[in-house]
Write a structure and sequence with these properties.
Elements: H1 18-27, H2 30-38, E1 57-58, E2 69-74, E3 80-88, E4 93-102, H3 107-118, E5 122-125, H4 140-146, E6 150-153, H5 158-170, E7 174-177, H6 181-189, H7 204-213
Parallel strand pairs: 1-7, 2-5, 4-7, 5-6
Antiparallel strand pairs: 2-3, 3-4
Length: 239
Amino acid sequence: MSKFVILATWEDVPHLTREAKDDLWKSLPPFQRDARSKGIPQLGAGAIYPVPESDLLVAPFAIPAHWPRGYGMDVGWNNTAAVWGAIDRETDTLYLCHEYKRGQAEPAIHTASIKAVGDWQPGFIDPASRGRSQRDGSQLLNDYKQLGLHLTLADNGVESGLYGVWNRMSTGRLKVFRSMQQWLAEFRLYRRDERGRVVKDNDHLMDCTRYLESRLSRMLVKPPVRQGVQYEKPVSAWS
């Protein structure tokens, strides 16, 4: 038997007045507002970041040249991922601007995609990469450094990292480009189980975000282009 799920928003309910909708909005916890008003799936009380995604999303724009940039990186054979960000120092707001996620590929393939976003940018990688192998026992951190990525270790304190990201979200100092659809898919399902443990499933971009947030002071401003040297392959959101 076929099953169908129909998602409706309260804009599809004609008997609700604007006043009633405003009252409902005020009565809902923040993490339920997008689900109830727009039909966007949300996990509710189990969500690690109980923030409406509408509070985070912004239209992509050209990053100002003087904003420091960098990326968080999570590595592994099943999935290697990266999240790029730029920080507006005047408002202390971190903008997540670009994402990468791919499974079952060699380090050289991942490196080419990461360099294409800007090979001058510093990356902050999971400390476990020092002793992690994909298939041949080699240390991934060294592999990626030898391939030309500028990597340093991130802080992998899980709870402190989650708090840092949550604090930015809840105070309006973390914004996400609407184009980051894979990041949003993970965000909507990022949760704790009934024992309060982080569910380690489809969370690679969430880990990257935590790594990036832990090393904001080490992000760099794009260096000037020297004559005859092209530092960065043009990417529309980063131009």
